[in-house]
């Protein structure tokens, strides 16, 4: 979810006076949730920390500067560090050094809550390993916003991140969670969302599915239906804007040996027998020893 936030506009918008404190945050890594669309979704606490932290780190420094400009927060000569997938190993030592020196560091992903499908995971893990402090500033999350408007059960849900781009890997990825008794939340490129649903329909075309597009933005859209119905509504070139895809709970049915063999076959080429059996057993709610025995039999058949 990487679009820059939109400033408030339109006839309903009016100036609002905000009081942003300058109290110095504690020496910690502050994970700052930032808007996924509307810039006004930022929290007052997030503005306080962005205004007063010693160092600012961001997945995209331009996006963070734009957000700060919207809210009138000046950089005031403070250091801003880019921290993303391509430079994380180089940027991480400087952030750790600053924290060890007693400085406060605010980290923001492109949009939404840091560490959710975001490179900040290793940063937070290493900060914790050093015995230093990590603080979370709750706020916008595309996954939770999508769950909120989907109408799907929210008592148990599973976030599975971004779908793999390669068709084969995407099918294996779907197989790894399709039988989990939970609402499943995924991120997908708007250009590939049709392919994702086509792959899903190969297994369960009638699963209730929801596509949320451009959440919190001017052209927000929520599409609901079965996976097969939504495939027909999506043009071949895909959609436009940021997309969250949610799948309802699986249909209740007993797994046949054919189902188990197919599920195991999709995993055995990529992982040990024991791990594959554990995943399939969890997916279908079966005893691990029984699925493990079937997996061993399949391996011997192949040999």
From TrEMBL:
EC class (word): transferase
RsmI HTH domain ranges (all copies): 254-299
Chemical reaction(s) catalysed: cytidine(1402) in 16S rRNA + S-adenosyl-L-methionine = 2'-O-methylcytidine(1402) in 16S rRNA + S-adenosyl-L-homocysteine + H(+)
Stated name of the protein: Ribosomal RNA small subunit methyltransferase I
UniProt record similarity statement: Belongs to the methyltransferase superfamily. RsmI family.
UniProt-listed PANTHER family: RIBOSOMAL RNA SMALL SUBUNIT METHYLTRANSFERASE I (PTHR46111:SF1)
Entry EC no(s): 2.1.1.198
Keyword terms, alphabetized: Cytoplasm, Methyltransferase, rRNA processing, S-adenosyl-L-methionine, Transferase
A molecular-function term among this protein's GO annotations: rRNA (cytosine-2'-O-)-methyltransferase activity
Compartment list: Cytoplasm
SUPFAM superfamilies membership: Tetrapyrrole methylase (SSF53790)
Role according to the record: Catalyzes the 2'-O-methylation of the ribose of cytidine 1402 (C1402) in 16S rRNA.
Domain Tetrapyrrole methylase, residue spans: 29-230
One cellular-component annotation, GO: cytoplasm
InterPro entries (UniProt xref): 4pyrrol_Mease, 4pyrrol_Methylase_sf, 4pyrrole_Mease_sub1, 4pyrrole_Mease_sub2, rRNA_ssu_MeTfrase_I, RsmI_HTH
């Amino acid at each position: 979810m990487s679009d820059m936030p939109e400033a408030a506009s339109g006839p309903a918008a009016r100036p609002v006076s905000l009081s942003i404190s300058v109290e110095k945050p504690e020496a910690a890594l502050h994970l700052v949730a930032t808007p996924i669309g509307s810039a006004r979704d930022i929290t007052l606490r997030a503005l306080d920390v962005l205004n007063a932290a010693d160092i600012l780190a961001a997945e995209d420094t331009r996006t963070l500067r734009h957000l700060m400009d919207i809210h009138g927060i000046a950089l005031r000569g403070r250091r801003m560090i880019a921290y993303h997938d391509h430079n994380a190993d180089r940027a991480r030592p400087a952030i750790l050094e600053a924290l060890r020196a007693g400085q406060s560091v605010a980290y923001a992903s492109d949009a939404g809550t840091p560490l959710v499908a975001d490179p900040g995971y290793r940063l937070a893990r290493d900060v914790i390993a050093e015995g230093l402090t990590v603080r979370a500033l709750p706020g916008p999350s595309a996954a939770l916003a999508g769950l909120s408007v989907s109408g799907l059960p929210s008592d148990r849900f599973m976030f599975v991140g971004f779908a793999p781009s390669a068709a084969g890997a995407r099918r294996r990825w779907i197989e790894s969670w399709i039988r989990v008794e939970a609402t499943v939340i995924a991120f997908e490129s708007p250009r590939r969302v049709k392919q994702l649903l086509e792959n899903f329909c190969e297994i369960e075309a009638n699963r209730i599915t929801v596509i949320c597009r451009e959440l919190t933005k001017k052209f927000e859209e929520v599409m609901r239906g079965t996976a097969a119905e939504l495939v027909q509504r999506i043009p071949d070139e895909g959609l436009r804007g940021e997309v969250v895809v949610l799948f309802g709970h699986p249909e209740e049915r007993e797994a046949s040996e054919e189902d188990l063999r197919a599920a195991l076959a999709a995993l055995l080429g990529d992982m040990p027998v024991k791990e594959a059996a554990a995943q399939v057993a969890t997916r279908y709610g079966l005893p691990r020893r029984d699925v493990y025995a079937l997996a061993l039999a399949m391996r011997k058949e192949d040999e």
